[in-house]
Design goal:
- The protein has 165 residues and is an alpha/beta fold.
- Helix content is 27%, strand content 16%.
- The chain has a single domain, classed as Metal-dependent hydrolases (TIM Barrel, Alpha-Beta Barrel).
- The strands form two sheets. A five-stranded parallel β-sheet has the order 1-2-3-4-5. Strands 6-7 form a two-stranded parallel ribbon.
- The chain starts with 15 loop residues before the first strand and ends with a strand.
Length: 165
């Protein structure tokens, strides 16, 4: 892939991503298109020797197969907003990648059981603000000790959240 970045801009890039597969969004792009575009991102990571921020939702087998095939193309990476199974977590760790956690990572008791098994040195905690908070109906809400008052969008008040931000 021919680089689209001028050499004077290269130092401004710190990672390639977010990129990956999301089979819950096939109405945006079908599997074949997602796979084709995903593979192109590895070419950029290799060209610039940059880490990758990866996305995997409802596509673990295809995602893992593609990442394993291209794992030597990037120095390190994180699979962000992780909600996968124990096997998906093990596969990610076997590829020496980190796992990013957000509120969605604590949605179910099964999610929590998997998160508890992730080695601490492989966890990246992401606020993903204003999205992916631990909602009151998530299994993980019982562990959230700090809560903030929030207001509707465009109603900013000091010391209060705006729409979960």
């Amino acid at each position: 892939m021919k680089s689209f970045v001028k050499s004077s801009q290269q130092e401004k890039f710190v990672a390639i991503g977010e990129c990956g597969l999301d089979y819950e969004r096939l109405f945006v792009a079908e599997e074949s298109v997602q796979k084709m575009v995903f593979i192109k991102h590895f070419e950029l990571a290799k060209e610039f020797n940059l880490p990758m921020i990866l996305h995997s939702r409802s596509c673990a087998n295809d995602f893992n197969e593609i990442v394993k095939e291209h794992r030597e193309d990037f120095p390190k990476g994180v699979v962000h907003c992780f909600t996968g199974s124990e096997q998906e977590m093990k596969d990610i760790l076997d590829m020496d990648l980190s796992i990013g956690l957000t509120g969605l990572s604590f949605k179910t008791e099964e999610n929590i059981a998997v998160v508890k098994q992730i080695p601490l040195d492989k966890i990246i905690v992401a606020t993903y603000s204003p999205f992916c908070i631990v909602k009151d109906d998530y299994a993980g809400s019982q562990y959230v000790k700090t809560k903030f008052n929030s207001n509707l969008k465009d109603e900013y008040k000091t010391n209060e959240l705006v729409m979960g931000r």
